[in-house]
Design goal:
Number of domains: 3
CATH superfamily of the largest domain: SOR catalytic domain
Number of helices: 1
Shape: elongated
Order of helices and strands: EEEEEEEEEEEEEEEEEEEEEEEEEEEEH
CATH class of the largest domain: Mainly Beta
CATH topology of the largest domain: Immunoglobulin-like
Structural class: mainly beta
Radius of gyration: 46 Å
Distance between the termini: 161 Å
């Protein structure tokens, strides 16, 4: 009798008349090959035993059992049973999270293989909707047969994602279902600050800011206007490796100004406009502060000298003189 199995084979045997605690040897061989011991079992109280075997490779095997007998019973050997082991089917599962994501954000692709297969390679494939499949990357399953892969899509659009594994000596290959991912244009934020926010004509005012998510080499336009006036371009600056920019402005006209920064969108992020900051530019004093301080010091010194001289030149009345008639 030939039995075809996927995966494991359950081998059951017994001794009659029953012998509890007897040693029963299970042997197997590839068809027409050499016999080898598969397992040594001990019978239970009813003289029976059970063994589960997972064939190491597909093929046809012969299996038999034997026992050496005891003082009152002759040795015995079972009939030969034929087992054909075929590869077991497998199921590869997949999920993605999130299913809608901003460009430049992470997507987690994960799943598992059943029956469990540890340390096997799972290949992740993707394609633009209706396009051709390409390999995205690979992941290795853990002890539970699970895998995970992180992808950061940069281009907007709709994608299909699936996973595959090649099977092994006991298990057939499988391909997961295809999952759909939507990548949308990311929102962005742009900042601007002025330091100081109150300045004098001729002073340097430092304008700084940054863009998020980080954009290196992005062109930032800084605009300004007198309060209530029309916007005009002050300058354009390029962001550094951290997405930051800096510009030093020396205003030459008194007044209150509003400033803002602008950035045009790219393939993966929306345009951004900063909030408005206000800068107050004052006229310098008519007398420079340094000169005013100097003049104040001179005036104080003159007053002190004058008082001193006045006191020194005043003659006291001589002793014994008659007082003057009023």
């Amino acid at each position: 009798m030939n039995t075809t199995v996927e995966g494991s084979v359950v081998i059951q045997g017994s001794i009659s008349p029953f012998r509890a605690g007897a040693t029963l040897t299970i042997q197997h061989r590839p068809s027409m090959g050499e016999w080898s011991t598969l397992a040594t079992l001990t019978t239970d109280a009813l003289g029976a035993c059970t063994y589960t075997w997972i064939p190491e490779a597909v093929g046809t095997y012969e299996i038999k059992a034997s026992w050496p007998g005891d003082a009152s019973t002759l040795p015995g050997e079972s009939n030969i049973k034929t087992v054909t082991a075929v590869k077991a089917s497998s199921a590869l599962r997949i999920s993605i999270s999130p299913t809608t994501v901003d460009a430049g954000s992470d997507v987690t692709i994960q799943g598992s293989i059943s029956p469990v297969r540890a340390t096997v390679t799972v290949t992740v494939h993707y394609r633009p909707s209706g396009g051709n499949w390409s390999t995205l990357g690979t992941a290795i399953t853990d002890a539970a047969g699970s895998y995970a892969y992180t992808w950061t899509p940069e281009a907007i659009g709709t994608y299909e994602i699936k996973t595959l594994w090649d099977g092994d000596a006991q298990t057939l290959a499988d391909e997961s279902d295809a999952m759909t991912l939507t990548v949308r244009v990311a929102s962005s934020t742009l900042t601007i600050t002025a330091s100081p926010t109150t300045a004098t004509i001729g002073d340097n005012v430092v304008l700084t800011g940054s863009i998020s998510p980080v954009r290196v080499g992005a062109t930032i336009t800084i605009q300004y206007r007198p309060s209530g006036g029309n916007w005009d371009t002050l300058t354009t600056e390029t962001t550094d490796t951290t997405g930051s920019y800096t510009f030093t402005w020396t205003p030459s006209t008194q007044g209150s100004y509003e400033l803002e920064a602008l950035w045009e969108e790219d393939a993966t992020a929306q345009a951004a406009e900063s909030s408005i900051v206000t800068l107050v530019v004052q006229s310098p004093p008519l007398i420079p502060m340094e000169l005013l301080i100097s003049l104040t010091g001179v005036a104080v010194a003159v007053i002190v000298v004058a008082v001193f001289l006045k006191r020194k030149t005043k003659r006291p009345e001589q002793s014994g003189e008659e007082p003057r008639q009023k």
